[in-house]
Amino acid sequence: MAGASQVMTIESLRSVPLFASLDDRAARTLRALMSVREVAAGTLLFKMGDPGDAMFLIEAGRVRIYIHDGDGENLTLAELGDGDFFGEMAIIDGKPRSANAAVTEQACLAVLSREDFLRFVRGNPDVALEMVSAISERLRRTDELLRQRVSRNVNEEDEARLTWADHVADSLAAFGGSWRFITYSSLFLVGWILLNTLSTTRLDPFPYELLGLLLGVVAGVQAPIIMMSQKRQAEKERLRADLDFQINLKNELAISEVLRRLDVLESERLPLLFAQHKTAVTGLTAQAAAEDDGKFPAA
User: Fold this and answer.
1) Which end of the chain, N or C, is less surrounded by CB atoms within 10 Å?
2) Rounded to an integer, what is the distance from CA 95 to the centroid of its chain?
3) DSSP letter at 37?
4) Does a structural domain hold residue 155?
5) Which residues pair with 54 in a beta bridge?
């Protein structure tokens, strides 16, 4: 069961890299917007497709972010601990959750709603830049993880397609292209020649026509077996190339999306945020100047 707490210390808040640079006033403002919960291990915080209405900061404990792959198995995207945050993508674009989140070790979580977050970011543009940087880094790690996962699936899928004949062809092709085959063949040739040269009962006397026939049969059978194995390897490489293309396409789309969000942030949000920030600084400067004039009136 999740229990609610009411206070998160400024030190705990600043332990999150995203908010480490906040001054005391901004940190106190953000802390007032958060609610803190104690969550037991095994609790599912949200599922893929749930509304993205809040982000979470981990004050203590561990949380696993995962999805279900094509085989229905859980694929872990990240294991998060003290000072990490998650759920930030959903509160930026307002779209449903893109993954599942579950508590793996009893955790103390600070929850920040989307409305409070957007209101806070308007007055602290540096936080928005830090978050975009963190999101980009996570996208890179996720793409690399998915690339490795697909590479393993290529081998698993190829193994599942193998028939008994394919196994035999691969084994014979591997044996025929080894030093062991050359050694056995040499020993057989030497033994055959010695047997039919020194023995009184010669099965295949010089010029060893039967030996030539046997070698021709072996070569005639070995050639199509090797060609079958090479053909299957070519099909495997085509499958791998197709999956690599899909991965590259996914990466390109993900990078394009990040660049699009950065462009929107730069062209629409940042000028407004910096203007508000400049207005606030100007107001504070004017207020400080007025207070100084009040303390030191003109003679």
Assistant:
1) C
2) 20
3) E
4) yes
5) 113
Same domain, 135 and 279: yes
Q: Minimal CA–CA distance to 143: which of 255, 251, 245? A: 251
User: Which of 120, 139, 161 is a domain's end point?
Assistant: 120
Residue, of 261 and 147, whose pLDDT is higher: 261
Look-up: residue for tokens 């209101």?
119
Query: Does residue 294 sit within a domain?
Result: no
Domain interval for residue 279: 123-287
Pairing relationship of beta strands 54-68 and 3-5 according to DSSP bridges: unpaired
Candidates 77, 49, 53, 48; CA nearest to 63 is: 77
pTM for this prediction: 0.43
CA dihedral over 186, 190, 192, 193, signed as positive or negative:
positive
Query: pLDDT tens digits, residue range 34-80?
Result: 888 899 999 999 998 888 888 888 888 899 988 876 666 777 777 88
How many helices, marked H, and strands, marked E, lie in the chain? Answer: 9, 7
Cis bond before residue 207 (omega within 30° of 0)? yes
Give the N- to C-terminal CA distance of the chain in Å, as an integer.
68
Distance of CA 99 to the CA centre of its chain: 12
- Whether 237 is in a domain gets the answer yes
3-class SS at 36? strand
Q: Does 60 share its domain with 146?
A: no
- Going from the C-alpha of 193 to that of each of 51, 198, 220, 274, the distances in angstroms are 82, 8, 22, 92
Separation between Cα atoms, residue 284 and residue 71, nearest integer Å: 58
Give the chain's mean pLDDT: 76
Q: How many other C-beta atoms are found inside a 10 Å radius of the C-beta of residue 58?
A: 23
Going by C-alpha positions, the residue among 144, 134, 148 that lies closest to residue 258 is 134
Domains contained in the chain, number:
2
197 and 135 in a common domain = yes
